[in-house]
Design goal:
This protein is mostly helical. It has one domain. Helices cover 70% and strands 4% of the residues. A hairpin with a 3-residue loop joins strand 1 and strand 2. The longest helix is centred in the last third of the chain and has 39 residues. The radius of gyration is 24 Å and the shape is elongated.
Length: 122
Amino acid sequence: MSTDTPSAPAESAAERYLAVQRSDEFAGLRRALRGFVFPMTVAFFLWYALYVILSAYARDFMGTKLFGSNINVALVFGLLQFVSTFLIAWLYSRYADRKLDPIADRIHAEIGEVRHDDGPRG
């Protein structure tokens, strides 16, 4: 029987994660994410607020008929809310593929984690 104790790993997983979190590359990744998410969130919020405010205070304008007897400005604005949501999701997907995922993949490789491409990324 040996009295040797197994040696502790040179660097624990927690220490590796903290080192990565403090790295310039990770800070750049966070900056790139925030550079997209914050402006898009503000833009979408303002667009939605415009829709709500116009619906509350510009009822005549929102009730203006555009096509036929049932299609008015309010309905078109409401449908454009859905369109803008899907557009932002598509733009984020493209942005993440180009800007975020390559940096995240490098960070994962540095940590030594196996990256699985089973689910959504971003």
